[in-house]
Design brief:
binds 3'-deoxy-guanosine-5'-triphosphate, 47% helix, Beta-Lactamase, five-stranded antiparallel β-sheet, alpha+beta, binds magnesium ion
Length: 464
């Protein structure tokens, strides 16, 4: 018995060992299977096993969740139940190809985008990858599906917003541009090419400095410096560009800086509005507010402002000034004899004559009618007053040809002095007007100082 035992012992041992081994292998397989099952059940992608005829053999919970069918509703069904009509055709073509050649065209393609259809008929975009394997000598397919409808919605929204930005940029009624940190145009729109006269290809080779009017460049650069230093987020200025054909054009420029997530500046976004017409109209209005429309000389408002400045300047430099009040003699008769138009021509001629005779530092204004006021600045002697006054009287007297008739006119002038006769516009013009009245009384075509005593004393100073 013992002998027999010793003889079969190695065999028994082998049997026991191999049974142990088989048990260990079974355990290992079960472990591995449960590991795979856990992965398949919990993976974020849907997994379908399909046979050669396209029938669903098995699916994981994610497929159930993705398509809204119960597992038992899917098993044994054609996979077409999960395909939107748009994709069914592709699938049928593939199946036909498979029958003819024995190979699926979908295999080895990586992932493709398909339209899936849920039980509630909602169509959604999914990513599909297909692999082939053999089970019990039968070819099978494993399809891995990922619902990307949310990603697609975001992608579409992004694309739409990008398109909206592009059309808002390209078709904007005002000029728009992206500008590099060193001032080069990176992208410009149609409206900007209209404002500047340059086409986009030309602008893209230039920087904004080269078309900025030199007088406006410093203020622009100062704002950019502040923007880059983070002292402000945007700035807005009125400035002038040099149009391609050479003329200046006023624009309202609004600039902001785009920064990366670390707050480093990337580029500028500029909005450029053509305000040339408003600006010119504004300039015209300002001009009209301060000038006499007939002669272009300063009007009363401008005279008042200029005289305040001249007084302040004379005070600072301890200088004298003379205020001359001119009124043409018997001007009404010119109008009566030659017509109002001829009278206008004469007024314009006199304005020109005054402008060419006096220094650029002197101020000449027409108060209306045949009245003019002149301020002679930087007076150092009586001669500095008398010489131009006598010259004016002489030049106005020279006959003029108006409408083919020789016209002669004279003028009377009243003179007040700063600081002796007053220090304000009101005082000085009032006293000059009083002196003018005196000149008219004394027979016209002459000048009279408001205060002859001062003139005498000035003469005395001169003689000393
Ligand atoms: P006097 O020597 O006293 O100054 O006599 P005058 O005729 O010049 O009288 P006054 O200065 O009082 O009148 C100025 C005249 O100027 C009155 C008006 O007929 C005329 N006048 C006023 N404005 C205009 C104008 O814009 N154009 C023309 N042509 N004449 C004007
Ligand atoms: Mg007059």
């Amino acid at each position: 018995m013992l002998i027999i035992y010793w003889q079969v012992r190695p065999l028994l041992r082998r049997v026991i060992l191999s049974e142990k081994q088989a048990q260990a292998d079974r355990n290992k397989l079960a472990e591995s299977e449960s590991r795979v099952r856990a992965i398949v059940d919990n993976i974020a992608d849907g997994i379908l096993i399909i046979d050669e005829q396209g029938k669903i053999i098995s699916c994981n919970p994610k497929i159930v969740q993705m398509f809204g069918y119960k597992e038992k509703e899917l098993i044994g069904q054609s996979v077409k139940i999960l395909m939107a009509p748009s994709y069914r055709q592709i699938h049928e073509d593939d199946m036909r190809h498979y029958k003819e050649t024995g190979g699926s065209r979908l295999i080895g393609q990586g992932t493709i985008e398909i339209d899936g259809i849920r039980k509630n008929q909602e169509i959604f975009t999914a990513e599909l990858a297909v692999a082939q394997f053999v089970h019990n000598n039968k070819k099978m397919y494993v399809s891995i599906l990922r619902d990307i409808s949310e990603r697609k919605t975001i992608e579409n929204a992004l694309q739409e917003s990008e398109q909206r930005f592009h059309s808002a940029f390209d078709d904007a009624a005002i000029g728009m541009a992206l500008v590099s940190l060193d001032g080069y145009w990176l992208k410009t729109n149609q409206a900007l090419t209209k404002i500047t006269g340059y086409v986009e290809q030309e602008l893209l080779t230039m920087n904004f400095q080269s078309i900025t009017y030199s007088e406006d460049l410093d203020k622009d650069l100062m704002h950019i410096k502040q923007l880059l230093a983070g002292k402000s987020n945007t700035y807005q200025i009125e400035k002038r560009y040099l149009h391609k054909d050479g003329h200046l054009i006023w624009v309202l420029l609004s600039v902001s800086v785009v920064r990366d997530k670390d707050n480093n500046p990337l580029y500028f976004v500029a909005q450029i509005q053509d305000i040339d017409r408003q600006k010119k109209a504004e300039e015209q209005l300002t001009y009209q507010a301060f000038h006499d429309p007939l002669t272009g000389l300063a009007n009363r408002a401008q005279l008042e402002a200029s005289m305040s400045m001249a007084v302040a300047n004379a005070k600072r430099h301890h200088q004298m000034m003379a205020v001359l009040f001119l009124d043409l003699d018997k001007f009404k008769e010119i109008n009566d004899q030659h017509g109002h138009e001829a009278g206008d021509l004469l007024l314009k001629h006199i304005a020109k004559c005054l402008q060419t005779t006096l220094r650029s530092t002197d101020i000449i204004a027409r108060l209306g009618g045949d009245e003019f006021v002149i301020i002679l600045t930087e007076i150092n002697s009586l001669e500095d007053i008398i010489a131009p006054v006598e010259k004016i009287i002489y030049l106005i007297t020279i006959p003029n040809i108006l409408k083919e008739a020789a016209v002669t006119i004279t003028t009377s002038i009243g003179i007040s002095l700063y600081p002796q006769d007053g220090e304000t516009y009101q005082e000085l013009t009032k006293k000059a007007d009083q002196a003018l009245y005196e000149a008219k009384n004394q027979g016209r075509n002459k000048y009279v100082f408001y205060n002859s005593k001062i003139v005498n004393s000035l003469k005395g100073i001169e003689h000393d």
